[in-house]
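Q: Sequence in, structure out?
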Amino acid sequence: MSTSASSATSRKRWPIAAAVVVIALLGFFGYRALTPASTVPAATFTLLSGEKVSTADLKGKVYLVNFWATSCTTCVKEMPDMVRTYKQYKDKGLEFVAVAMNYDPPMYVMNYAKTRELPFKVAMDSDGAAAKAFGNVQLTPTTFVVDKNGKILKRYVGEPEWDALHKLLDGALASAA
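A: Exactly. Output:
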């Protein structure tokens, strides 16, 4: 077989190989995507205070659920913007739960929340149940915007586009009034 024929054959195979790898990874991670228009799953968050808050408790409110970790550079980078967003919308009824991933050491999370004076609810997902309920969240940050009826309006993987998020919140909170 000539070099160009061999090269052409390998070029035809790589998309198939890539698809097989993606399918295998999705199967391995038990992929179950929560998409916009999905109903928020039943989940309970244990706050740093020990108080428990569930998605059922938040029904009737517009809220964000942000899965993050202190070891995640994008999470740490976006957190000041999350704080600003919360402060901008809290008086309009926005609730916010920042859920630290199960691999994040609780002392790191408590220290981060205290030193950064996080103004919203901060929870530890110690057993990973909340991340699993929200579609087996593996990547941080992952943020869900939930409307007053418990519908997921948007899922962001990575840092949100802030203007678009604020426009979405404006609409959701206006309809919540």
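The longest strand covers residues 63-68.
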